[in-house]
Protein 1
Amino acid sequence: MTASPRKILSSLFVAACALSVALALVPLVLIMFFVISQGIQSLNLDFFIHDPRPVGEVGGGMRNAIVGTLMLTGLAAAIAVPIGVVSGIYLSEYRGTRFASTVRFAADTLNGVPSIVIGVFAYGVAVLPFRHFSMLAGGLALGIMMIPIIARTTEELLLLVPHALREGALALGATRAKAVITVLVPAALPGIITGVVLALARVAGETAPLLFTSFGNPFFSTSLTQPVSSITVQVFNYAISPYEDWHRQAWAGALVLVTIVLICSVLARLATARVARIGGQ
Amino acid sequence: MNPPVVAPRPTVTAAPRAPEQQGPLKIDVEKLSFYYSEKIALEDISIKIRPNVVTAFIGPSGCGKSTFIRTLNRMNDIIPGARVEGRVCIDSADIYGQGVDVVALRRKVGMVFQKSNPFPKTIFENVAYGLRINRMVSSRSELAGRVEESLKQAAIWDEVKDRLQESALAMSGGQQQRLCIARALAVRPDILLMDEPASALDPIATQRIEELIYSLKKSYTIVIVTHNMQQAARVSDHTAFFWLGRLVEYGRTEKIFTAPSEKLTEDYLTGRFG
């Protein structure tokens, strides 16, 4: 049987798609390979329970940075989730209005602003007035980055909820707000949670906005008003240092960061799977 | 909507008379016109409906019967640009009057939609929804009792009593529709509006819904929109025939189906168009 030109063309196209996917995966695989193979060597219990040692002393860990990153992203989520979700609800409820279009455009623009610029902004509003770096400023910078992502995801997902559900709620005597809160948002919740986690994962890996907001701190600190260490900044500082031991620790830090993001995603999946079982999505 | 091109606009000679019956009026519509922005969807509709009667609205697609049923609980309010003229009185009070509480109105005038629309919640929570948001029960046991009562009224209790905590979306289409009816009944409305409740269901599920409508008639005033003329003949006491946004004929179902007074009604019922 001779293959027709159409079939050959089709096979070529499928092959091209497969090749593109493979190429796209190459960097990911390489990154994961190096981060895991290099990081695992320096990863031990000490890494999690000790703070950095002074220059020249071997050993120590990144306890302060790990806790710092968790607190910074938690703070960012505390700022961004309420504002982002409520803005998203507004955007979907009043999507036709001029104000909503303006807000949507502003959110998309904010989403495209380089993170270093957001860092400068946070420096201006939350560092300069108090004359010192703080976790609050870092959390603010990360939170600002999360707001547009969460708002737009929430909006998109609410628009996917069938109109019939809104009508069903209204027909039972729900007010518009009640219908949104008790039916539309719960129906969209699995997707909203995924959006929030993606936003968290994105900002957890940010370095630039933290450089002059939370700055970094060689000591363990959980104070909102003090500078705080974060994994990304720590990795950056260690990676550009001349010390072999710090390089190893930087790899370990990178591995921990990747793992934290992964765990967050898995937890979110599990949480949304529970909601989705009832929601049937 | 593409109106059929076979016949001119209906010229209804006499205003359709209300079917003769005793008792006060449940629904009294006077000279209702309805517009989607500039487009007129209903023109000069007057109809009187008495309590505990099943009234069927029939007519071809796009004739305005769904639009009309949705004016009775003001569901059309949420459509931008929609406009109503005329009066719709329920229990002698104009529902488009000033200071009318739409939320209270919709509690009193329940609605079941063409496509079943259970919330993505458990079966129990679906029925409990209206009771919860309207704060109609004061205790858990009362809530459970009302849920059970509504599910029984909707003739679905036996099928779901062991799976109340499962997702409503796991039910079959016919069960979902009866769940939606139970959900509407839970808030104890006076009037139940049904917009083609069986159009997406198979004959057996349809039969169950029809039996249900018959049994609910004792306690509710029911208005049902249907495409299916046999269904209208089976379940309704009175029938109203709509065409191109007008009410052409309204009367006792036997009369409409056996001896309609309008030529248009006869043509529609005999399948000449529509």
Protein 2
Amino acid sequence: MIRVAAVGDIHLGAGSSGTYRPRLSHLADHADLFLLAGDLTQRGTEEEAEVVVSELADLPVPTFAVLGNHDHESDAAEALVDGLREAGVQVLEGSSVLCRVGDCTVGVAGVKGFGGGFPGRCASEFGEPEMKAFVRHTERTARDLTDALGSVGSADVRVALMHYSPVADTLKGEPCEVYPFLGSYLLAEAVDRSGVDLALHGHAHAGSPNGATPGGTPVRNVALPVIRRSYRLFCLDEGHLHEAAGAGPGLHRHQ
Amino acid sequence: MTLDPALPSDYLVGHVEDALARDPRVTEQGLRVEVTGIDHVVVVVTGVVVDPGHQVAIAEVIAELLPAAVVRDETTVADYPERDDPEVVS
């Protein structure tokens, strides 16, 4: 049995110092792994990166993250990634890790992901160079996710960690006009192709918590405004997902 | 490139729509695709194309992606009359 705690979109700002870490005070009691689904910062500045690193440093369980779109806003993502690494948090981007928890091995593969939409309303690689670049970025990140998942193919349990959504299910509540900017079905296809036990994402603050890929993989939107608590807990037992109602100090909102 | 017809239909829809938008023989952006069928894949395409030749190409492109699929092309060719009653803008 592997216990995973996950949250996305914590959006720490320059003034958030000292406010987030207390929310994780019981993390080790609840979880074996802690996963962060991107948008750790509000504007991705180096000042905010320092706050994030300070708040997440030396957590008591292995912690892995992907970045989100906010974390790229100030072109300082490298400083955030480096700082987190030194603080014991590994940022995944087209990469994966294999952890041992008791008798089980868990593989976590992560990408930021990107938009493009879902069947019936998809962007295509056609027209202006800017449009082609948009779609190619999504296609590349989906390929990266496939490769990263393949490299942990031997794990007993596999988790795909993204910022953007692989399915429309977990976007319900968002205006349908913005779905193409919230995720892509190409991410779901990568998940289904690879035999994943749980897919996690954030980004859709007004979305819904639960969904599934067309192949049946559970998808969970762990954006903080959706789960409305410090993190959501999942127990994975040889491919079977058991979900706790929640954990951590209750409602915790950031914008 | 061919698609695995055993893929969930959502993925087949996405890839066929993408091919019809990108393939230089078609390049139609607004077509809707539905994939049905139990024993074999049936691809239904609806929408408006700008050229009758595109309807021929739709069947070709889908046949290349899903060689065993049955294609039901329900598209129509755009045929717009020249407007002869001007709108009065006041």
Protein 3
Amino acid sequence: MIVALLLLIPFITALALMFLRPTQQAKNVALISTLASLGVVLFAWSAYTGGTVIHYNMDWVPAWGLRFVMGYDGVGLLMLILTAVVFPFIIAAGYGEKLQHPSLVNALLLFTQTFLFGVFLAQNTLLFYIFYELSLIPVFFFLLYWGGEHRRAITVKFFIYTLLGGLSLLFGIIYCLGQGAGFNGDFATIGALNFPLSTQIWLFWVLFLAFAIKLPIFPFHSWQPDTYAMAPLQGTMVLGAVMLKMGLYGIIKIVLPIVPQGVIHWQETVIVLALIGAIYGGIIAFRQSDLKRLIAFSSLSHVGLLCAGLFAWNSYGVSGSLYQAFAHALLVVCMLYISGAMKERVGSSEMGAMGGLKLRTPRLAALFLLVLVNAVALPLTQSFVGEWLMFAGLWQVNGWLAFAAVSTIVLGAIYMLFAYQRVMLGPDKWALEMTDATTRDHLVLVPLIAVTLFLGVYPGPILDLVDVPVQQLLSSLSLN
Amino acid sequence: MSALVLISVLGVVLLYLGLFGNRGLLAPVGIVGLLAAFVFFAADWQLENALFAGLVQFDTYARSFSMVLIVVTVLLFLFGIDYYAKVRENVAEQYALMLFSLIGGLLITSFSNLIVLFLGIEILSIPLYILAGGKRDSFRSGEAAFKYFVQGSFASGFLLLGLALLYGSTASFDLPAIEAHAVSIGTGTDMLFLLGLFFTIAGVAFKVAAVPFHFWSPDVYEGAPTLVTAFMSTVVKTAAFAAFYRFIGHMQLPEAVHTMLILMTVCTLFLGNIVALRQTQFKRLMAYSSIAHTGFLLLAFLGFDARTPDVLFYYLGTYALATVGLFIVLTLAKRAAKGDEHIHIFRGLFRSNPWLAIVTMLLLLSLAGIPLTAGFVAKYRVFVLSLANGYLLTTAFAVVMALVGIYYYVIVIREAFTPGERGLQLVVAPLNWLVISLCGIAVVALGVMPGLLRM
């Protein structure tokens, strides 16, 4: 029931929006739909008692052994919560945007949500792949229609880049389907493949490439900054907050179980690449003059850290990475919302044109500061918990790697505070009146900030959720 | 048997109808006749049916392909009503020639004797030479017909030489006898047999436009009237592939022939996809995309196992559906653009004809092989098959080429969905609308429930 609701609520609403085109009410309808999905997910969370919950398990095309298996475990549930929590705010961010055809915009966003739910609910590698690719299509049209400059070229680049990973993943999955006795693609039987080490070494990259591009980690990131900067605000939110988490989820659910030895073999390489990306992203972010581009590169930096933490493959690193994934989603939405709010007032997201806004919009400045403390991972914020866990995990692998990882925090503090300075501080050079944070701004930012602070003080609920699955993963790793 | 006779008589009836000026009746009579033939095939379902003293074997395989050929021809006839509405002369001949060509197609999907293979391919091709030149006052059309004719005759020569060599080596035209001979050779060499196989395969590969026998296809596709192009890339291609598999599917191939097939697959995949990247004329793009799909189909050929016929059947059926729909959209857009075929004519289609744009997108996504469309399932099954038979690197190469393919289809989608611009106002006749919608819906339905289309 929960699975059906999660897929059908956004899907049917999206279809209705697409065909009925209620221009005036589109945003309200979409908001109600996402809130309903959130309710369903929270219900699922309250009813969850551990283990893997399978809701559907049936034949799809019996002749070819295709099955339709949907359900979730702790990690999947975390991702569902993340998606469900973030989407109402993404829709709400649309109230400030003057995009044409709001019913189509919201329909595309809801289609994306449907497919994202599908990705996190799928308990079968092929279903996972299908939803994974499908989630691209609404985003493709969203970027193509409502994107900024050079959208035609950038959108296709983004699409092809991501599909390159997707097809590589498909190849890997088909290879596994053909090889493993007793493997029908279900996650339940995925650990039984036991390829020899020589196979695992190359198969790792075939499977990992998709997620390395999706996250993205260095050197597969070249699509990301342009796409983030060009995409409309809500598009960047979807990409940065939720879609890249598919990469993290995919590594845990597909790459690790199929090629555990390959993962160990390439562990340090991936950590080093991810950290190069993290530091590189931080340095480039500092040089950006456009607030949205800065957020894009800061996201690259954060994601590098997420991936490095995950590849520590110890309980600190993995739970820290998952926890931080959640924190990062909220953070990205907050940051982008603020950049949108600034653009609404000043007319561009160029930081050189801003400055002195604190005097005009003190409340917005205060909200920005609260978001910023989360971004630089100050203690008592959600990011602090996640990053601390990841550093602890990396420390167990190698002290120098942990050192490199910690340096990204310093970089983060530098570029974030510098951005704040350029946007908010300085002399007041604005002659015109400017509205301070509106009710809508408060309604979006305050709950998100409240959640980040609450989970920063009391991370228990989320960590409990992932604890058992992470222990299981790690024990399967040590068995090999 | 009854179906074959029916379709042949139908062609003659159409010719007479044209002679007495009943133009309005041509397509309806043709469609009714074809549907009757379809019922004949469906009624004899599952019966082994040997005709003409065993020269032709209507087994499940032949029947399934025949039914797909007939259905696609019906779709094209439905399209023909609007397509030929403004044409004054020789309409009846065009319908009749398509039916005669279809007879050839039916024969080569069911042959069990190589004489029938040759006859079938000739019956299939000769009407096509005329059809390609169907627009008598068009220079391009004439060029297409001439090129097709010259190169086609050359290929027929190859085929005939191959068949003669095979006869020389095995003293029989019977397919089972030749298969038995191939087994008896084992790992030894029989140069005559090898050359015979080689030339026969070359002759058939010409029909499916596999590299290096593909040179005719872009020019002929571009020059021929669009309806004929659609006919060639669906009915003819499906029939030729069915024949190709029938010929080598159960044969124990010598190592050299096997290597040649692999080379052909790789070259076809590479050339079709890479050259398609540079195309700006939609018909040429479809021609190269057709070559690319030939490559994927050949990949399914490499590893023969029990699943291969079904995989081919599914792939060809869904490919034909998507292609017919796209060629109809092309005709409509080309008409609105006064004869232009550049992919720019699709620009802004979404604003002027939203439903048409959505269906076009679905059809292109299916050709590209994006999940939940039939094209994805088709490619997926081909990859499963070739990986299961151990062609790791060839499959990896095909996957990369599939990505290249996605690029050029997405470029067309991007044109259709370019924001801000209002595209050409297409005039869509109700029947065309129906056929296009049918193709679009079928492509999605078969993608979600792939079990619906099977042998």
